[in-house]
Amino acid sequence: MDRSAMAARTPVTDAAWFEHRKILVDVAYRLLGSVADAEDAVQEAFARLAAAPDEIEDVRAWLPEPLVEGEDPADQVTLDDSVRMALLVVLDRLSPAERGWRT
User: Fold this and answer.
1) Tell me, what DSSP letter sits at residue 65?
2) 76 lies in the same domain as 57
């Protein structure tokens, strides 16, 4: 955390940092595509949290983690494999020019 966020740290923000940071960086990385940008986005979120801890009743609601309810993780793996295979079939049928590759 930067100096301004560290100055405003409270037990609530410390607990939230240790509990939610990893999942938030993971989600931000998937959205932004860069570890550095993901770290910056999460640090900014925690700086905002540190600036307004009294206004927030539930930190988990303010820093939500994605919940997948009712889905079996095996179904997601199967879907990922199916999509991967379908993409390979499509790429195999396209010419290099259609794929956007130079020959």
Assistant:
1) P
2) no
Is the same domain home to 61 and 98? no
On whether the CB atoms of residues 50 and 10 are closer than 8 A, the answer is yes
Q: How far apart are CA 8 and CA 10, in angstroms?
A: 6
Domain of 95 in residue numbering reads as 69-103
Structural domain count of the chain: 2
pLDDT digits (tens, 9 = 90+) for 50-100: 777 576 777 766 665 555 566 677 777 777 788 888 888 888 888 878 877
CA distances 27 to 4, 30, 103, Å, are: 24, 5, 37
- The distance between the two most distant Cα atoms of the chain, rounded to a whole number of Å, is 61
Based on the fold, state whether residues 21 and 57 are members of the same structural domain: yes
Q: What per-residue confidence (pLDDT) applies to 39?
A: 92
The reply to whether 47 and 88 lie within a common domain is no
Burial of 49 (0-12, 13-18, 19+ CB in 10 A): buried
